[in-house]
Amino acid sequence: MKVAILQCDDVLEKFQAEFGNYPQMIERMFDDISPALNFETFNCQLSEFPADIHAYDFFITTGSKASVYDDLPWIKQLIDFVRVLDKHTKKLIGICFGHQLIAMARNLDVKKSEKGWGVGIAKNEITHPPKWAKKNTPKLNIIVSHQDQITDLPSNAQIIAKSDFCPYFV
Question: Which pick of 27, 52, 76, 101 has the fewest CB atoms within 10 Å?
């Protein structure tokens, strides 16, 4: 299977030696699921996008320190690209910024949380365990640093986890 990673930012350089950049993290995560996946990365901040969306089985967006409502040309391009994927019913996994991006592309609301910043370890309740998950655990702890949240969902969204701070976590 071919996977397009839509890279929306870089991990801070001081952490890349130990953890890798976002594409490497995603590839490692999916290695546990299937080593047969082939990844290709597109740096959306540099206006790089797949020329043929039909050449990929699914797409993944990374996180970003940017906000999806920032008035930046690459974000506008990416929102338009997500709309094209949606029109062609392509599978898209949105990680953090990515799931906010999907909401924006569907004209849903994304804004700063009234609770301020979520920083540290977010303790999440698994509400719908994905079929591909090897472990079926009731909780998921993730390191976070964000203040933006979506406030409503697309009709066909599947929430996997939630927390008191962020009801639409993943």
Answer: 52
Residues 109, 133, 126, 137, Cα dihedral to 10°: -160
Give 58-105 pLDDT, tens digit per residue: 999 999 999 999 999 999 999 999 999 999 999 999 888 998 999 999
Q: Is the Cβ–Cβ distance between 40 and 3 less than 8 Å?
A: yes
What is the residue type of 33?
I
Element containing residue 104 per DSSP (H, E) = helix 97-105
Helix (H, G, I), strand (E, B) or coil at 121: strand
Largest Cα–Cα separation, the chain = 42
The answer to whether residues 104 and 79 touch, using CB atoms and an 8 Å cutoff, is: yes
Query: In sequence order, which residues have a C-beta less than 8 Å from that of residue 55 and are 6 or more positions away?
Result: 2
Which class for 48: exposed (0-12), middle (13-18), buried (19 or more C-beta within 10 A)? middle
Rounded to whole angstroms, the Cα distance separating 101 from 1 reads: 24
